């Protein structure tokens, strides 16, 4: 499976494409960063991000897109810009019918390093090790995008299996309740018939 990981942002939007093989094997395909000028109009900055994401989707044809979920930050303006960039990415993927999954920073860190509290340097080091990279992805947004793709490749199959198991369990519960209701209804009908026969 091929995944496009996206670390959303307006000043820098990290993009990373990773192929997943058997087991937990992963292979780097491409990594880069979209940059937009801070003094540019917001709409134009979002358009710049969208155009580059569209180009990557066309060129690398991922089967899924993993985006970092935005959490509240002290800088509200930065958080808003990050969320808007993430929305643009999700829209571009949705237009192609691609599944989009948002992963939290702690989920990504835990998947890649084993600790949800790892710092950026630890994440970058593990990304390099896992993908066999000799050169550190720069800036950190690029490494984070690769980490997102790896996280998705490793977590999504488990999430899908869990969702399927929950759906099967819910179906069993519904079927069991239906059988109980049918049995109770049948028992009530039998009781009424017996009462009617006794009065006769």
Walk me through this protein's architecture.
The chain is built from five helices and five strands. By secondary structure, the chain is an alpha/beta fold. Strands 3-2-1-4-5 form a five-stranded mixed beta sheet. A hairpin with a 4-residue loop joins β1 (2-7) and β2 (12-20). α1 (42-60) packs across α2, α3 packs across α5 and α4 (120-131) crosses α5. The termini are far apart.
List keywords for this structure.
single chain, 200 residues, alpha/beta, 5-stranded mixed β-sheet, 5 strands, RNaseH-like_sf, EC 3.1.21.10
Chain-wise SSE layout:
Elements: E1 2-7, E2 12-20, E3 26-35, H1 42-60, E4 64-68, H2 76-95, E5 100-103, H3 105-113, H4 120-131, H5 140-199
Helix pairs in contact: 1-2, 3-5, 4-5
Task: Write a short abstract of this structure.
Helices cover 60% and strands 17% of the residues. With 200 residues, it is an alpha/beta fold. Helix 3 (105-113) packs across helix 5 (140-199).
Mean pLDDT: 91
Kindly report how far apart the N and C termini lie. 73 Å
Class from helix and strand fractions? alpha/beta
Overall 3D shape: elongated
Our Rg estimate from Cα atoms comes to 25 Å
Figure out the total of helices: 5
Helix content: 55-70%
